[in-house]
Design brief:
43% of the residues lie in helices and 12% in strands. It is α/β, with parallel strands linked by helices. The protein has two domains: 180 residues, Rossmann fold (3-Layer(aba) Sandwich), CATH 3.40.50; 56 residues, Winged helix-like DNA-binding domain superfamily/Winged helix DNA-binding domain (Arc Repressor Mutant, subunit A). The chain contains 14 helices and eleven strands. Helix 6 crosses helix 7, helix 12 crosses helix 13 and helix 13 packs across helix 14. The radius of gyration is 21 Å and the shape is elongated.
Length: 332
Amino acid sequence: MEEGVRELLRLAAYPRGVAGIRSPEAERAIERAALYLERSGGRAVPVQDRACPAGLSSLAGGPRVVFLAGPWNHPGPLVAVVGARDASGDGCDVAYALAHSLAEQGVAVVSGLARGIDAAAHRGALEAGGQSGAVLGTGLERAYPTEHRDLQNALARSLGLLSSLLPGSSPTPKTFASRNRILAAICDAVVVVQGRERSGALLTATAARRLGRPLAALPWDSRDPLGAAPHALIRAGAATLVRGAADVLELLGVEKRLGQPDVPAAPREVAALGAREELLWSALRERPEALEHAARRAKLTIAEASAAFVLLEILGRARREPGGAVRRWTRR
């Protein structure tokens, strides 16, 4: 491997301000990282380079070099969808549906590959045929958690993977905190879906505010502890309340940026519905019934119908009755 690449690896391996010092242990780590990059096709990129995702060079105290796998060349906006690892089923459904709808609109969805909200958002974007990428708290070579290996490989083939750690380095709590700050730096907006009172998603939200990135959060039942983080952000005026993809697009001004035709705007609730939500809305009845009946009429799987129903419920266009039956709902 070229000596120039090894110099980039040294920038990542040695602390800031250290010049002319060579540690045998660090040099061995650099050689291992160089071999991994050569074999895997990964690359080391200085944050000022045009090949690096925009925004990283403005991150105070951020990395000098990052490690990339995948293209990282999406022409449209990037939105971070983040939240709790121990997310509820409804939380994962909402994250999946939100990412799916954003991807259908040409938005790339990025997150941190963690369990819960992160994974659901990645999968939603990928299954919509859109692009999704991950900022890792580990080196490129490690899958964490291990059950996300296939998902990580899919993301590497999509938008890509980004890590500030030298390949082969051991992750620490600080590296995951750094990952959250990097997520905020490379995105055009951050959406917090779910999180407890001290959720790690708040680190991403704080970084987004400091960097001037638009910050959004979804509302939940006031009694739900997993709604504590988004509710705190909304209550403090730090985040804009969003109900679905249309609200996020409006926050970004994406219609104009993506060159969508200049037509009269549809009502917000209608605009917020994706194809699956429209199908389920048409299939719902005024009288309560089991969700699987509506799903069958809409020709949706139960998983697809469940995700669509959550968004309809948030928008006030459907409701779940005691006992679990569902129905169409019109505000009176």
